[in-house]
Amino acid sequence: MEIVMPQLGETVAEGEVILWCKEIGEQVKKGETLFEISTDKVTMEVPSVENGILVKKYAQVGEVVGVGLPVATLQLEGETLQAERKTLPDLQKEQLAVSQLEPVKTSYSGLRSPAVKYLCKHNDVVLDDIQGTGNGGRITKKDILQWLSVNKTRDDASDTLSPAVRRLLAEHNINATDINGTGKNGRVNKQDVLNYIDNASANPSPVLNSETQDNAESLPEIKEAEPNSEFETVILFNHMRKMIAHQMTKSVNEAVHVSQGIDVCFDAVERVRLKCKDEFKVKYGCSLTPLSFIARAVCIALTEFPHLNAKVEEQTLITSRDIHLGIAVDLAHQGLVVPVIRNADDYNVSGLAKQIAQLATKARNNELDGGDLQGGTYTLSNNGVYGTAFTTPIINVPQVAILSVDAISRKPVVVDRDGQELVGISSQGMLTQSFDHRAVDGGYSGAFLNRVAEIMIHHPWQDEVAI
Q1: Fold of 154-202
Q2: What's this model's pTM, rounded to 2 decimal places?
Q3: Fewest Cβ atoms closer than 10 Å to its Cβ: which of 171, 242, 378, 459?
Q4: How far apart are CA 397 and CA 178, in angstroms?
């Protein structure tokens, strides 16, 4: 039984194997984790769907495998028992029957593994040109790769690149032939490209004009700085940090970031929240936080400002009819993920509070799947839990806006009482939106923020909390 790379979302084309939890020959029980994979969206465990023995690994740690392609082969218990049932007389009869057959040309159309089919399709390989070395002359993945290594030149290297690698090369204007691939048969994988980009950034090639070129020999030698072992520690980025760095850099390079903030009065929200929070916790087992009220206000406002509930593709703005709200979740300072509440505008405050709690728990327990991270149209980042007063968040491209929720605190404010200005105490907090200026202008974003602030003050919040 072949275990393939699972589909982790409609936009994810491949996954990287980051850990093997079982070794070849080891017994595997149904539900036990075989290996762990990572994409630019999620890190997840891939469990066995049956009891059996791991008999083959098609990918090593660090290798990228396309969705639907085999990662491992599992010999099921039933298959093993069935093979053992054959007796010696049965085998002798089969051998005699085979020896009496006339040699015929074997058709391999029904004997191709998914990996062989994939390689043939993407490399225009004709099976008649290849001598199979598998059982009964079957053509294996190794046979295809060996044939390609002999018959394909390095100029054809781009034919075997994965979609994610092609995107990275295009974004950074890199030629695949400039990179030494570390994958099987010298294939360039995603990590090879990221390493190449890191090295190029750390050691940029100098651009010399005719004058400096003549004096190049007199230039001082530039030595790479080395960490002082006594005062400095070198910490290599793990896979998640590399993916976050890549996504953030992509956002800054693509979107035209502008940030706006607005002071918001939370008095109306806090009156209802503080009154209901204890009973809500007992009934639903989760907290009634200010974030759930803000999420509800954002959903209401987005229906009136649809250009912020959208994504940019090249020179077009594509608005979404549905509101799929991304909630940034911190993973104990080891990274972050952004699971999505689908059709968030269908929920009241109580429903949003439960959805936020469920997704945060799944994220921190590493239980998110690809579907939990797909399709977001707008994102909330709750930095206020750490006491921040003002944050300018980075847009989660291709979305066009993200809202940072900062700390809510009691502050002295000037209030109007019957035409007289008085100083009172109020629950105040800052909401900061970063938006893509390619998609909307400052006036549109400012009007949206003002509408959110109005909703926070005047919405009938008691009707939103079901207890």
Answers
A1: Dihydrolipoamide Transferase (4.10.320)
A2: 0.61
A3: 171
A4: 29
